[in-house]
Every structure is written in C-alpha cells, then in structure tokens.
Amino acid sequence: NTRIITVANQKGGVGKTTTAVNIGAALAMGGLKVLLIDLDPQGNASTAFNVAHDEAVPGTYELLVEGATIAAVRQRAEGYPYLDVVPAGVDLAGAEIDLVELERREFKLRDAITTMIERENEKYDYIIIDCPPSLGLLTLNALIAANELLIPIQCEYYALEGLTQLIKIISLVTENTNPQLHIGAILLTMFDGRTRLAHDVANTVRSHFPNEVLTTVIPRAVRVSEAPSYGQSVLTYDMSSPGALAYLSAARELHEKGRMK
Amino acid sequence: NTRIITVANQKGGVGKTTTAVNIGAALAMGGLKVLLIDLDPQGNASTAFNVAHDEAVPGTYELLVEGATIAAVRQRAEGYPYLDVVPAGVDLAGAEIDLVELERREFKLRDAITTMIERENEKYDYIIIDCPPSLGLLTLNALIAANELLIPIQCEYYALEGLTQLIKIISLVTENTNPQLHIGAILLTMFDGRTRLAHDVANTVRSHFPNEVLTTVIPRAVRVSEAPSYGQSVLTYDMSSPGALAYLSAARELHEKGRMK
Ligand SMILES: Nc1ncnc2c1ncn2[C@@H]1O[C@H](COP(=O)(O)OP(=O)(O)OP(=O)(O)O)[C@@H](O)[C@H]1O
Ligand SMILES: Nc1ncnc2c1ncn2[C@@H]1O[C@H](COP(=O)(O)OP(=O)(O)OP(=O)(O)O)[C@@H](O)[C@H]1O
Ligand SMILES: [Mg+2]
Ligand SMILES: [Mg+2]
C-alpha cells in the first residue's frame, strides 16, 4: 500500500520543503521507493535534489493542466536509486488561474496518481507532496490526493495562528471530497532550546495534538540550511550533524507510526 | 506626498510581516502618520498590533470585494497615536476567488487608496502594505497600488531562488499597469553572522542590487520573534535590544533614502 503524504502549512517558511526533502531522502536511503511531487512554483524541492526544472522541462504544470502522466514527467534524483521527483517549473505559478476553468480541477493530482498506481506493477512505498505557502487550488489538489497530512510547525509565535485555519480547511476536505484525509503527524521544526518561546510553542502544540506530534523535534541547525546550496539533502551533506540525525529519527518514527495503524 | 510601500516576497517566512510591523512602528514613533494595510489572510500584522480581526470585524476583505472605504475599516493601533491598521480577517482567504469575477479586480486597492487621499485633508506620510507569500491577486493589488517596493530577503539559500521570479513580475506590472513601481529598498533579514551561508547570501544580494540593499542588516534576534506574542512591536517590547535598534536604523535609512530622490 502506497502512503500518500501531503506536507502542508499555509504559514510561510516553517520547513515544509526541508521536511519533504529530508524525510523523503531518509526513507529512500532506507531502501523504500519514494516519489516526491513538488507543488510549489518556487521549485525549492526540485532544487534541493538538483533536478532540472527550468521552463523547458515538463513537470507539475503539465501534470495538472495538460494531463501529462507522472511517468512522463518524473526524474530520478541523482545519487538516490529509490527516489524520483516530479519537478516544479516557474510555469506552475500560472496553474492556479489555468486550473479554474477546467472540469474536476481539484482532482487533477489525485487522478494522475490513481492512473499511475493502476498502470504500474512496481509501486512506490511513499508519495510525498510539497506544498506552497497558501490554501489555493494547488494545496487543495494535494489535500484531495493524499490519505494523510504531515504538518511542520516552526516553534515560533505566528506559527500557531494559522493552525486553526488549516484545521478548518482539512475538515472541509474530509467532509466533502476526501474522507480518508487525516493528520498523520505534526513535526516541530527549527526548535532552538535556548529560547523560552520555542518551549512555550512546543508545549502548546503538544497539549492540543498529543497523538499527532512526533516525539522527534528538529533543532535549528545551520547544516540543514546549507545543504540545499549543494543540491543535497542534509543526510548526504553531513550525515552525523544534529539536523541529519533528527530527520533520520523523524522518518523512522513516521514510518513506524503508519505501520501501527 | 504619501509614500506607498508594498512589502513583498513570495518566499515564505522571510520577515515580510516583521518588517512591515517594525518599520511602521518606528516611523510612527518618530511622529510620522502611518497606515498599515494587512493583505495576508493569516492576519499576522493585525495580531502584531493587537488589532481585532475576527470574522465579525470589517477589514481588507470588505475593502477589496465589497467596496468599503479605508475610513470605515481602519483601526487605531493601541499605544501608537500615529498608526492606523486595516486588519485582515480569515475571510480574506476567499478574496482571490471572489475578486476574479469583478471588474478592475487588480485595481481595487489602488482605487480605495486614491479615494481616501482625495477625500481626506490630513494625509498619511506612509502607507505600508504587508503581502502574503504568493503572487496572486492580493499581491498584484499591492504592486499596482504602491509607488515603491520594499523586499525583505532572508539570508538563506532558498531566498535567492525566488528573486528572479519576483523581478519578472515587477517588470510586467511596471510595463502594463503601474509605471512608477520600482524597488525602493531591499532589507537583509535574520542575518546570523556566525554562519558562512549568511555572509555568502548577503554578498550575492549586494552585488546584484548595489543601490537598493540597505546598509542596515537585521540580525536574527529572539526578542524580535517574542514581541508578537505580547501584541507589540519589538520597539516597544525591548527598545534597546539588537533587533529593535536594527529596525530603528532601517526605518531611518529608508526614510532618508526616499528624501534623496
Ligand atoms: N532545522 C532547520 N535549521 C535551520 N534552518 C532551517 C531548518 N529547517 C529549514 N531551515 C531553513 O529555513 C528556511 C525555511 O525553510 P523551508 O524553505 O523548508 O520552509 P517552507 O515552509 O518550505 O517555506 P515556503 O513557505 O516558502 O515554502 C530555509 O532557508 C531552510 O533552509
Ligand atoms: N530578525 C529576526 N530574528 C528572529 N526571528 C525573526 C526575525 N524576523 C522574523 N522572525 C521570525 O521569523 C518568522 C518569520 O517571519 P515573518 O512571519 O515576519 O515572515 P513573513 O515573510 O511575513 O512570513 P509569511 O511568508 O508567512 O507571511 C516569524 O516567526 C518571526 O517572528
Ligand atoms: Mg517550501
Ligand atoms: Mg507574513
């Protein structure tokens, strides 16, 4: 059974891409087959794996708006035998407007994934979808395509504000279009143990979502933010650094948590 | 003459709200009349000044979609005699879809500001517009309403990626709808001098935009991120902290830079 996980949070800069990239890399390094779909017009997840995503390269735009198949647009991530990436080009910025007039506009991603799963014998163990920082048609497509949600929460004050809005959207999607969508996990990110603020935010989130918050907390660690400038995940950039160890542990915990269901 | 400054960058979490709030507060504490318009459905700028913005309170949604006047929706920020805020409620999330069918949908904000300036004797010295992390109709309204842009850039690798896209959008707006729009200033934020990455990014930005990058750099400083949880700007929360002194200096530099034109 393929686990389809959407990484979403409309608050900007909370670690969505960093989480999608490093969790995906950790699972693939552990031998699981992973597909990463970059749904953010900024294309940060594509950059993180050094996957070409300039205007000439087909990617998520062609998938959603032109009906291309996943097989036609995916690329193998260099150095990762079990990790494929559907890249996001700059043209994806126009997708939300182009999608508005199409039939089944919210189901385009789900339909593409369903077609792939039906046609291909070899299945992915994980499909991970990185979202932009908004609640528009791109993120809606991801919420409808997924069976679970991974929500990164930065240990900062503003990060709490948007959570109620996100929870509302999730229950709307669950009631209307995707009954299996649920919060699979919440990951606390950029935790700086020296500040009271970080502890306060972490405690607040844990008290509201005791079952969803992963025990592993990702520390603020400079090696994590350096890795993308080398086109690597932090796992290959500096495997024994605190950030890499935390993402390895988070991936293992997420994998275990899913098996228990 | 009222300076209308849009604070924009589609990359998430780079310090747009923190910059809009603290530059606005610094100018108002210096005796200048400031209007802050919150164009982000997350409503973080409204929260930062403890301005009510729940569903029952009129704000930016009514301004853009229902044709309300600025005078009807603005609120005075507590403790700031010269600072008014147009708050953003959760309903603003629906504005991009509701705007699509309206005539002059990209000019709604500009029209509202023009009407206010024509009708009122007492003018604002500054109008500052905080944008969401996307390049949709809300940010487009802000780009068309403004005469200059203030771009916060986080000293991180991904922050550079989105810059080319933003510059492209700005030149499209300048060519088609708002010829006076230009980059008034670029502000480097969350600079951590201990990391090579921060220095590399700062040097890259300075070499590409030598005239626009402000000399003042905002350090990463925990007091800056604590202030919003007390509904204050960092200037009133901890006036002598490194973050507050940096924002005071940035506001003074921005004000001087405008006068030299
Ligand atoms: N644990 C960490 N330690 C240090 N830096 C981090 C960490 N996680 C992420 N970062 C850095 O913080 C910034 C924001 O992270 P990231 O881009 O992954 O967030 P995002 O939610 O995907 O942003 P957006 O909303 O723009 O999509 C990036 O520059 C990233 O390198
Ligand atoms: N100089 C700083 N030092 C420490 N923390 C900061 C600094 N500037 C901003 N922050 C914190 O970083 C986070 C991101 O900043 P902010 O929310 O202002 O960015 P933004 O660009 O407005 O985000 P969004 O894209 O979601 O609108 C916030 O939690 C904020 O408190
Ligand atoms: Mg991202
Ligand atoms: Mg903001």
Walk me through the structure.
The structure is a homodimer of 261-residue chains. Chain A is built from 13 helices and 7 strands. Chain A is an alpha/beta fold and 261 residues long. Chain A has a 7-stranded mixed β-sheet with strand order 3-4-2-5-1-6-7, with helices on both faces. In chain A, a hairpin with a 6-residue loop joins strand 3 (75-76) and strand 4 (83-86). The longest helix of chain A is centred in the last third of the chain and has 18 residues, at 242-259. The mean pLDDT of chain A is 96. Chain A binds chain B through residues 10-14, 17, 41-44, 47, 90, 93, 96, 100, 132-136, 154, 156-158, 161-162, 165, 192, 194-197, 200, 222, 225-226, 228-229, and chain B through 10-14, 17, 41-44, 47, 90, 93, 96, 100, 132-136, 154, 156-158, 161-162, 165, 192, 194-197, 200, 222, 225-226, 228-229.
Bound molecules: adenosine-5'-triphosphate, magnesium ion
Order of helices and strands of chain A: EHEHHHEEHHEHEHHEHHHH
Average pLDDT of chain A, rounded to a whole number, is 96
Give the largest chain-chain interface (CB within 8 Å): A-B, 38 and 38 residues
- By secondary-structure content and strand pairing, the structural class of chain A works out as alpha/beta
Uncertain regions of chain A: pLDDT < 50 for 5+ in a row?
A: none
Amino-to-carboxy terminus distance of chain A: 13 Å
- State the strand order across the main sheet of chain A: 3-4-2-5-1-6-7
* Oligomer designation: homodimer
The major beta sheet of chain A can be summarized as: 7 strands, mixed
Proportion in β-strands of chain A: 5-15%
Which geometry of chain A do the CA atoms define? globular
| Count of distinct strands of chain A | 7
Radius of gyration of chain A: 17 Å
Helical segment count of chain A: 13
Helicity level of chain A: 40-55%
